[in-house]
Amino acid sequence: MNRIDERFDELRRHGKKALIPFITAGDPDVKYTMDAVRALESAGADIIELGIPYSDPLADGPVIQASSQRSLKGGMNLDIAFDMVQNLRVNTSIPLVFLIYYNCIYQYGLEKFIEQCGKTGVDGAIVPDLPYEERQALKPLLDDAPVYFISMVAPTSAQRIKEIASSAKGFLYCVSSLGVTGERQAFDSNIDAFMEKVNLYSVVPTALGFGISEPQHMRRLGYLADGLIVGSALVRRIEQKASDRDIYEFMRGLRMALDECMEQTMENNS
Ligand SMILES: O=P(O)(O)OC[C@@H](O)[C@@H](O)c1c[nH]c2ccccc12
């Protein structure tokens, strides 16, 4: 069984939601990332997204773009990222998901990429520039892979939501709002209706991302999905040279807000 499925099963049994932080692998270096993964895990993260830096990251806002640049400058590449995962796997079984642009996979070779994910312990891959339609051509390879290729839906996906959601694996990445990644103050009120639709059709747990950055957002959005994703808010702290302790504290604050919001929902329902 994939570690992602195991984790969501466990969360469901405990009535909890997944907290999914994103960091760029190798920003500013591999050692920092490895320490950050441990800090995030001990603060209560459930799944960790590791960004593979790319020179032309079209879906990324300025904060994550800058972090990609720092990581590339440090010499990060896919081989080093796989080595890093192999080293992390010596003492953690937290689900790890790569956020990777298709061009990087293409250059590396899709079959080799899948094989290395299986060997080193990468449980999922989010490929923001691989549209659902194009994935169909790769289906035979992706379907048998030990690594889940995570599907994404956005409020614009309208008629496609049903199709995408009903064939997803691991979890379904729900994009809260259009545009690029980055911290936000407020969320569109349509988000409730969007998530209602997604939850209706999804055969796997849903995770909501884009703009989520504060404890208050955990409370506002926690009940809409099975998990929440936080990227730029964390990456900005890393840019400001956050210590392990800072990373731990920030994640802990989000964890507590998310758990509180679930306890309240459960009390209201009982
Ligand atoms: O940074 P935000 O707004 O918190 O959004 C999450 C996001 O960073 C992460 O999942 C991500 C990083 N790069 C991406 C590219 C496309 C989709 C998603 C991502």
TrEMBL record:
Catalytic residue list: 49, 60
MF GO annotations: tryptophan synthase activity
- Keywords associated with the record: Amino-acid biosynthesis, Aromatic amino acid biosynthesis, Lyase, Tryptophan biosynthesis
Pathway membership: Amino-acid biosynthesis; L-tryptophan biosynthesis; L-tryptophan from chorismate: step 5/5
Superkingdom of the source species: Bacteria
| A Pfam entry, by short name | Trp_syntA
User: Could you say which EC number(s) this protein's record lists?
Assistant: 4.2.1.20
Q: Which GO terms describe its cellular component?
A: cytosol
User: InterPro entries given for it?
Assistant: Aldolase_TIM (IPR013785), RibuloseP-bd_barrel (IPR011060), Trp_synthase_alpha_AS (IPR018204), Trp_synthase_suA (IPR002028)
Q: Which SUPFAM superfamilies match?
A: Ribulose-phoshate binding barrel
Q: Which reaction does it catalyse?
A: (1S,2R)-1-C-(indol-3-yl)glycerol 3-phosphate + L-serine = D-glyceraldehyde 3-phosphate + L-tryptophan + H2O
Enzyme class at the top of the EC tree: lyase
Role noted for this protein: The alpha subunit is responsible for the aldol cleavage of indoleglycerol phosphate to indole and glyceraldehyde 3-phosphate.
What the record says about family reads:
Belongs to the TrpA family.
Q: What is this protein called?
A: Tryptophan synthase alpha chain
Organism for this UniProt entry: Mahella australiensis (strain DSM 15567 / CIP 107919 / 50-1 BON)
